[in-house]
Specification:
about 750 residues, alpha+beta, Beta Polymerase, domain 2, 6 domains, 6-stranded mixed sheet, about 45% helix
């Protein structure tokens, strides 16, 4: 194919994709504003002319794909589709936000501006541009939720097509996706998109496990189909008699959620009883109450099958924070298997799949259904009104409110409040009102006095006790879990610190008889007390931690070369906290191998090339990397490297929560690594096992471990209860293969029923 033929083929492909986008839009319930979508497409096409993606295809195919996700998978209208088509033009071309405003109006310009990334380097060396980008995204989201919806669509398409990127870039994207975008999609009710984002990340970071679990799911398909049909036949008969219009289907758990369950519970694939669920979606009859119809279907099913009482989930009366409504129950099927059944109306199903976007469709007549989502958006707005100066702290604060698990607690008057799981009485106080939070002393939970750190449970009734003499304390941050509570406490503490510092400044000025204090004098005062900042000096004076001398001349007697005045205790504490030797604020990172610069010559540590694979080696009982203490990786685990402030490579598991945060915030510090061969250095691993207790079983296990190989065991913990024992062995190994070998040995001991590696 020659050049002209290729261009013609590409033009045809682009036009076909645009026509498919228009068809998606025209098949929706939105008004027919085709002109503005066509205009946005033509502008974007011209702006990106001649530009190609890493995969080699014309760049315009990416905005088209994002626009199709926005239209088809989210159900958004012309404004969102147009903004999706234009989302990269300001960042990547000569067009400005003002240009977009002139052509398309304020609303589309505002959305495009919110979607435009912030250039790295604007924030200084110690700031994560990724975190700053996310903060800007949320700021715009507080004005228009469509900014985040389009950004999630953008991320979804990038995840579908990121195989052409470098491994380090892929790690950055998967980290951001799992840490930020998947929880955001969940919070906004985009269930199918959230599931796909998790699946794509998991498939990339754990390809072998993904392939193995996919194979097992396919192998059990025939068995699941038989179980489903045996269960469904009598249910269909009952529902048909009730003259209900419905559809019933089975839904298999995602590969990622299966793996998460296996990891968290330490169980095998065959031990997962809720591998699939049955979903019943019904049409609401005119004049019928949809909640009543849900309970009617529930009654019909429980007349046929035995109910498991502890597995009823009523999200009809109190929807989830993302707006999800349904009735879940678990029953014993005819094959002796527990089966989860999800009952929801067509409206509920639409909202469950398309989330916030679907809410707009139903909002006109059912305003109350948006309550929980509106509350969450209000919370985000409150956080944004008083954000943390540090973008990463801010991101972590928001992240805490993206957890999927919620609890429902009651006020003394019976009003329901939704909180994240793990929330405390202090969080509840700030949920009621900031003033109540600031002045709370304690709480009564179910009429019993409890401390502010008390963790609440669903169904608790909470009364907050207050005093006007009480103010937020620094230790409150240790048990505040919600974003709102932490933001308000931090703001109050900053105000308190500012007042104390102002008092200290006045005391210092009074010492100098209110004469101006020049910078030279300030430097001498700071040297005298061993401090670096004026703010710290003022605060310590105001808080009576520093006692001022009677005469200011004391400060002028300090020699320039004199060391900072520190008592022995302070000096010892600084040594203990490793702050005397100041570490560099930023690692020396090379995006490609440079020529020898002055910095490189001065540095005793070689620069690390983030575009190459970093080999993890051991030499003479020393290693060129640090296994992360948070996840304790061992050779054979799927891992990545993070370049820390000391230019050392920290090795994290790809599934590590801390690692996910690092990938999300510091993408330029991520490096692909490769395990070497380790014979000198060993790694600590934990193996858990259970079984039927008998005399001598621990001795049998230990003797089995010592067969054919010398094993260095750090510790053994075993407990027994009513004939069942549980144990864990901490052992030093050289690789995952060593762990697997030890597990197979333990499994051969008579009485042992389960054995697996404990994963942090």
């Amino acid at each position: 194919m020659n050049y002209d033929e290729r261009l013609a083929a590409e033009e045809k492909m682009i036009n076909e994709e645009f026509q498919a986008l228009l068809n998606d839009y025209l098949n929706s319930n939105h008004r027919r504003k085709v002109e503005i979508i066509t205009k946005a497409f033509n502008v974007a096409k011209e702006a990106h002319k001649g530009v190609r993606r890493r995969s080699g295809e014309p760049y315009i195919m990416h905005p088209l794909a994002v626009a199709r996700i926005v239209s088809r998978e989210m159900g958004l209208g012309s404004t969102s589709i147009s903004a999706a088509l234009l989302h990269d033009v300001v960042e990547d071309t000569d067009l400005t936000v003002e240009d977009i405003r002139m052509m398309f109006g304020d609303k589309i310009a505002q959305i495009v501006d919110g979607l435009t990334k912030i250039s790295s380097g604007m924030f200084g060396e110690n700031v994560s541009a990724q975190a700053e980008n996310f903060r800007k995204l949320l700021l715009t989201m507080s004005e228009d939720i469509r900014v985040v919806l389009i950004k999630i669509a953008d991320r979804l398409h990038n995840m579908r097509t990121f195989s052409s990127l470098t491994p380090a870039k892929q790690f950055k994207i998967t980290g951001e996706t799992m840490y930020i975008y998947a929880p955001l999609a969940h919070r906004l009710g985009l269930f199918s998109i959230k599931t796909e984002l998790e699946e794509l990340c998991f498939k990339h970071e754990h390809p072998d496990i993904y392939a193995e679990l996919t194979r097992k799911i396919e192998e059990t398909a025939a068995e699941r189909s038989k179980i489903y049909e045996n269960f469904a036949a009598p249910v269909r008969e009952a529902l048909d008699k009730m003259n209900i219009k419905y559809e019933m289907r089975d839904r298999v758990k995602s590969v990622y959620s299966i793996w998460k369950k296996m990891e968290s519970k330490g169980i095998d694939f065959n031990e997962i009883y809720d591998l699939f669920a049955v979903r019943i979606i019904f049409e609401v009859e005119p004049g019928m109450d949809e909640k009543k119809q849900c309970w009617d279907i529930y009654s019909a099913i429980t007349d046929i099958y035995k109910l498991r009482p502890d597995r009823i989930r009523d999200w009809l009366s109190q929807p989830k924070a993302n707006g999800y409504q349904a009735l879940h129950l678990t029953v014993m099927g005819p094959d002796g298997k527990w089966i989860e059944v999800q009952i929801r109306s067509r409206r509920m199903d639409d909202i469950a799949e398309k989330g916030f976007a679907a809410h707009w469709k139903y909002k006109e007549n059912r305003v109350e259904e948006d309550n929980e989502l509106d509350k969450w958006l209000k919370t985000v707005q409150e956080i944004l009104a008083n954000p943390s100066p540090n973008a990463i702290d801010f991101l972590d604060t928001v992240k805490m409110n993206l957890f999927s698990s919620e609890i429902y607690v009651f006020t003394p008057k019976g009003e329901i409040k939704t909180l994240p799981q793990g929330a405390t009485a202090l969080d509840f106080a700030y949920t009621i009102h900031t003033r109540i939070g600031d002045h709370c002393l304690g709480a009564k939970v179910n009429h019993k006095l409890v401390p502010l750190s008390y963790q609440l449970k669903s169904g608790d009734q909470v009364e907050i006790l207050t005093s006007q003499s009480q103010y937020p304390q620094p230790e409150w941050l240790n048990y505040a879990t919600t974003a709102k509570a932490r933001t308000k406490i931090e703001a109050a503490l900053r105000r308190q610190k500012r007042k104390i510092a102002e008092k200290g400044q006045r005391m210092l000025e009074e010492l100098f008889e209110n004469q101006p204090i020049d910078n030279v004098t300030y430097t001498k005062i700071l040297n005298y007390y061993g401090l670096e900042k004026k703010e710290d000096l003022h605060y310590l004076i105001g808080d009576n931690d520093i006692k001022l001398p009677e005469n200011p001349n004391v400060f002028h007697k300090v020699k320039k070369s004199a060391p900072k005045s520190e008592n022995l205790f302070v000096r010892y504490m600084k040594q203990a906290m490793n702050v005397i030797k100041k570490t560099p604020s930023e690692p020396k990172i090379a995006t490609n191998l440079p020529k020898k610069t002055d910095d490189a010559i001065l540095s005793s540590t070689p620069l690390i090339d983030t575009k190459s694979v970093y080999p993890l080696k051991e030499e003479q009982f020393k290693k060129n990397f640090i296994p992360a203490p948070c996840c304790k990786p061992i050779p054979g685990d799927k891992v990545f490297g993070f370049i820390n402030d000391k230019n050392e490579v920290e090795v994290h598991k790809r599934s590590c929560e801390t690692g996910m945060r690092l990938k999300s915030n510091f993408g330029d510090r991520i490096v692909e690594v490769e395990w070497g061969d380790y014979r000198q250095y060993s790694f600590l691993a934990s193996i858990a096992f259970t079984g039927i207790d008998r005399i001598g079983i621990l001795s049998n296990i230990l003797s089995k471990l010592s067969e054919e190989v010398v094993v260095n065991i750090q510790s053994v913990n075993v407990s027994s209860n009513d004939g069942i024992f549980e144990g864990a062995i901490n052992v030093y190994v050289h690789s995952v293969e060593d762990v697997n070998l030890l597990c197979s040995k333990i499994a051969k001991v008579d009485g042992v029923t389960t054995v697996h590696r404990l994963l942090v």
